[in-house]
Structures are given as C-alpha cells and as structure tokens.
Design goal:
The chain is of the alpha/beta class. It has five helices and five strands, in the order βααβαβααββ. Helix content is about 55%, strand content about 15%.
Length: about 130
C-alpha cells in the first residue's frame, strides 16, 4: 500500500482549493479506496491551524479542522524518534522546524512526501517527493 505524508502546503492547497489541490484530492481518493495511507505530523497540524485561523478566523478553522478529521488521515504526534530525526534534518538543511518534522515523518514512515514547498528541493536525494 502506498504511503504519503502531507505537509501544511498540501493541506492548505486542499482546504483553500489552491494550485495543487487536485493532486492532493487524488491521493485522498486512493486513501478512501483503501489503496493508500496518509499521515500528517502534529507540527504540520499546528501550522495549518495557525494559517487557517489567520486566513479564515477561528470559525473557518473549526470548519476546516472538522473536514480534515473526517478524512482517512492519521495525525502523528512528535515523539522522541521523530524529534531526533527532525533535529538531524534541521541541522543538515537549515530549514524550518515544521519542515524538519515533515521530513522526519516521511523518512520514518517510508512515505512519499506530498508538497509544493520549494524548501524541500534539497531533499529529493533523501526522500521520495510528489510535487503538487
């Protein structure tokens, strides 16, 4: 079964029907049909919550949050293993802590990262990335 990690870029594209939303929807359909597993880091969840509240207010986030939680997506807490991997990615690539957690989750789950964030360009040698 195919595994995917969504970063905040992908989730926000889906929620706000931004460029790349169709590719995210395709992956979600695969998961709904039992052909894929999807993971989101709790750190990405926090980032999506913050940006959604800023864009749409608290009520908009509550609606978005409710719709995300109905999807076949596993929210993954930041445990010590992911934190240590994230520290390695952050040290090596000097990108945001949220991106480091996304990369660590993708590596730990052996999952393809679904993103449109150019910050991940450097990781194409280490991770499988599906660009939206």
């Amino acid at each position: 079964m195919k595994k995917y990690v969504l970063d905040s870029y992908a989730v926000l594209a889906y929620l706000y029907n931004e460029p790349g939303a169709e590719k995210v929807k395709e992956v979600l359909v695969h998961a709904l049909n039992g052909k894929a597993e999807i993971f989101i880091s709790m750190v990405s969840w926090a980032e999506v919550a913050y940006i959604s509240k800023r864009k749409s207010g608290v009520g908009g986030w509550e609606t978005a949050s409710s719709s995300i939680r109905r999807l076949p997506i596993e929210l993954v807490p930041a445990d010590i293993e992911l934190a240590n991997l994230a520290a390695e990615f952050k040290f090596k690539y000097r990108f945001s802590l949220a991106s480091a957690f996304v990369a660590s989750l993708s590596k730990a789950k052996k999952a393809e990262l679904l993103t449109g964030d150019p910050e991940f360009n450097e990781l194409e040698k280490e991770l499988s990335i599906k660009w939206i």
